[in-house]
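FORM 7B: Structural annotation worksheet

SECTION A. Query
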Amino acid sequence: MSGAAPTKRILKTTVAAAAAGAVVLAPLSPLAQEAGRPRDPLSIGIGQNAEFTRVEFGGVIGVRSRVSRQGDKVVVRLGTTAAPDVSRLKVDPPAGVKSVETRAARAGGGTDLIITLEEGADARSGVADGAVWLNLYAPGKAPQGGDAAKPATTDAVVPVKAETSADKTVLTFQWSAPVGAAVFRRGDAVWIVFDTAARMDMTGAKQLGPAKDARWAAGPGYTAMRISAPDDMGVAAQGQGGIWTVTLGGTAPAASGVEVGRAEDGSATLVARMAGATKAIWLTDPLVGDRFAAVTALAPGKGYGGGRRTVDLTLIPTAQGMAVETGADDLRIEAAGDLVTLSRPKGLTLSAPSAGLETGDHAADAPRRAAYPAMIDEGWAATGEAGFSDRYRRLQDAAGLETIAAADDPRAPIEARMALARFLVGSGLNYEAIGVLNALIAKAPNLQGEPEVRGLRGVARVGVGRLEEAQVDFAGAALADDPATKVWQGYIASEQGDWEGARRNFAAGASVIDDFPPAWRARFGAAHALAAIETGDLAAAQQLLAYSFSQKAPAADQLTARLVQARLFDLQGDKGRALAVYKAVARAPLDGIATPAKLGAIGLEMDKGALSPDQAAQQLEQLKWRWRGDGTELAVIRKLADIYLKQGRYREALDALRGAGRRLSGIPGATEIQADQSNAFRALFLEGAADGLQPVQALALFYDFRELTPIGADGDEMVRRLSRRLIDVDLLDQAAELLQHQVDERLDGVAKAQVATNLATVYLMDRQPEKALQAIWGSRTTLLPAAMNSERRALEARALMDLGRFDHALEVLDRDQSNPAREVRADIFWKQQKWAEAAPVYEARLGDRYKTTGTALTPAEESWLIRAGVGYSLAGDRPALQRLSGRYGPFVAGARSAAAIRVALDDNLSGVAGTGDFANLSSQADTFVGWVNSAKQAFRKEADAKAAA
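SECTION B. Predicted structure
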């Protein structure tokens, strides 16, 4: 672990935390612990991140483990006499651990796990979620001040002193550290609330003068005190650090320091500026039974001197902090820094910002407010006999004078500036209108909550193609009930390809569409017709197109409607009329309209066979440069890529799709482009389309577009398929690089462990055991399938064997008797020249193979047989050699290495020949070559099985 990359997640042990909520002044109950989850009697889990390594002891035995510290040793007493499996900790100790060992407990039975720490290392332990956990920290990594991080509890005691005179009582709360406070009167009681839990020591505050009946309670993260006091008794609060002084009676100074206003973003939200605000605490009055909130703030003292009432809430005057009464269950109060935000999911019910402004002089001929905030009045563009310039100048002059007046008077009227904005919107000068409205909002940010300001700016933004910005304006709570806004939202949804949303919003605003100017009525009709076509309602589309054609709209709008009509003809099966309309519109001198018409014509002519794929591709290559930057370009590129894919021109198709996806990611149709890329990549590397390419060509194509590899099982399978092809032609470095990218960048958990296992196999095939170990150690995780764990142990042991660490390799294998483990164990004994131990393992790998004499031995089986015979000979075990010779003698004649097998099974050499005599023979029985071949075969079988599935 000390040399492995940190895992991406730690074991999911949680720590219980108290949850804040409404409370009646009564003792609190402890939280219930989570129910234990079923597991083995003793399970040891290991997780790691960059800061520490966590070891968890779970199960009915593990949860009773005891952790103690003895100098540099951490001793974990496990309640079982069976030695636990801690081979992972021993072979690869975590950072900061010098050694790990187990021993029988000296008293009381059980087993001690002893972890010796390096100098400067540290350990922390605890119990949570039905497990005992142990965090191991490398030198310098242990957190400092652990006690300071603990949540406040009622163990702290705060002395309270009272000084009483004839007309007032002064209470002093002596906290040991700075705390936030809120002090206010509510009915016949004064409330004092602190943002930290503690016990109030009222010994020095038994006499409260005119006040009486002081009661306190502590909850999770707060302390509240309620004092009964006459209505005419004033309240004041002062604070310095952790000392708070509350004065009841006397002459209370006017509270200040808290300012409440509407949010500057125009949302239906109230924002209070209160320095040092700490938290909102919900309380329940024990006498009245209603619910209210106190917002605490740090010293020095600051309060809200005024009162404010809305439909949703009431702000109570305070001596310190804030207090809020509400009948709404969903009121949210958030304290952050110096701001306190009060909101509801659908916004507070507040009056329009313009309600507080003065009324200005309004010119008789100035554009008037429309019937709805987002409506365009047809009369706004009227210029009169003097013409456009004169009218524009007069409106601009009046707006300028009004702007000058607003510099000194925040309540100055806005009629002249709004009149100018209406004229500009009605005249199609949308950029200028946006400038006027933005300047207005810059002077008075709360006007973003004015319905007509938001509505007009949204309309102007639609006019210049800023659809996302327009959506933000139309989404404001001030326009929630405006039917004209629904029409605009339907138009935007149609432009963005949200056909269901378009139809829904157009229907919601249908009652006011006829009140718009003719040009916009035609645009809305065509957009609604397109949405109807895309949702399969062709009859409605035909009616909407007829409505659009009936309007006296400009030629460009009429041609746009004709494009929609051609699409309708196509879907109705009238291909000839559709092609004729497309060709007619394609001759228009407007590229934005002619390009989609030309695209439609190319598609129909290909369907008729009038255009070959090569001819269509040539025309589309030219067409994609004619009009750029919107959904039309995306449609052209999708059509072109589809032709390339069908022709097997994979690189050209993916290049075209990727280029468009990068540039046009934020416009309608971009998601389809991404889907096309993913589908093409999937067809190439998951469905076998790339199998016809040379492995090197397939690899180059994969690397150039590797960002399209899906996360999860499909991406894993793509890598498996391609790496298998590379392994078949011994391109091991390239296969390893491919798998390494998946492990490092794209996978986690079990999927990462599986691909890392394959990566380790490739590294071992390429004789790189160090990298194989890194792959295994860097992908450790819990809850792996047993078969995968066994495979990973065998690979780890083989890598350690290749590095000459034989004892470690055997310790990793432990008692694993799977075939891969036995094969590695035999090779380790062979390398250690432990012939008596190696030979039986090789013979065991052959199993009952001697019974099927009709089938020749495989190369791997011949290697095991030769090594078994040589091992028995070198060990002097003549009976075993004779048994082996008797069983496998019939295979000699048909063997590939017949001479070598004959010599290996010759019992006359047993105990006579030495290691040097068998050196050449042993080299012919290289089990590594057999292992490589079997690994390749395993890759092929796995890939074929998945393909068949």
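SECTION C. Observations
The two ends are 37 Å apart (CA to CA). The chain has 32 helices and 27 strands.

SECTION D. Sign-off
Analyst initials: ____
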